[in-house]
Amino acid sequence: xxxxxxxxxxxxxxxxxxxxxxxxxxxxxxxxxxxxxxxxxxxxxxxxxxxxxxxxxxxxxxxxxxxxxxxxxxxxxxxxxxxxxxxxxxxxxxxxxxxxxxxxxxxxxxxxxxxxxxxxxxxxxxxxxxxxxxxxxxxxxxxxxxxxxxxxxxxxxxxxxxxxxxxxxxxxxxxxxxxxxxxxxxxxxxxxxxxxxxxxxxxxxxxxxxxxxxxxxxxxxxxxxxxxxxxxxxxxxxxxxxxxxxxxxxxxxxxxxxxxxxxxxxxxxxxxxxxxxxxxxxxxxxxxxxxxxxxxxxxxxxxxxxxxxxxxxxxxxxxxxxxxxxxxxxxxxxxxxxxxxxxxxx
Length: 346
Known about the structure:
Strand order of the largest sheet: 2-1-3-4
Mean pLDDT: 95
Low-confidence stretches: none
Number of helices: 11
């Protein structure tokens, strides 16, 4: 048998979506240009996608988005970035010297290419890629996988590479969110719980449906081999797992979808829409809501601003009295353990 000295370290690549380099309009425009021209995010022909978004959508959207990013920015910069870098260091400490952990963003900096170069320079024996998206979607995890394969396809020597495609029902993921949720539930009695996930167009789900299994309905009532990569089914499964961990009955929580983009095509996105659902709650006697964002593992614009502030304002304007966002996982010790455990098992 070969001696252990011939074995290299195992490379680990943690990846999150991305963030502008700063909340200035020029940097936000650069970020949006890269993000919204990704063919997996906006699945239009390139001849239409690039002129439409680079020439019209991004120039109009960048100044508005920059103002929102300015609200999100901290002394350490973008939460998505510094929480990612902190997670990288803590997971590295947990795994020890047999592993080398790198961190990259699908869009902007630090780039996936730079992170992969770090692993290649260290002559790692193989690479485990963990996109930090609990539920698989072609526009998030799929885009990361495509980018990684595009980069390494240009290497003369390609090491063994494996992907962790989702962690929908990973016990450590569920338990950490449950721990954070229970801490909030000890402070206040809530009438209802909302699990709000990032939305995607319904056509994205249907395009990935296994042999036409997905009907955007009761097919998501169970999580099985036919819908294991269906984003909608995965969201409902995460909700079921979280509801069970929190001791909730199905009537005590609702699964909803946020962040839909309005378009002239009026394509339907996954429903029910969070913003529409919560406006109806006060009239139904639901005046106090605990909200989770289980599609994200770190604070970002979609959690802190959209769910934490914008939805709170909508709910209160409709007559609601108390809206509370459960903090994201960030670098919670249980989450660090969960990430290290997923990597070790792969």
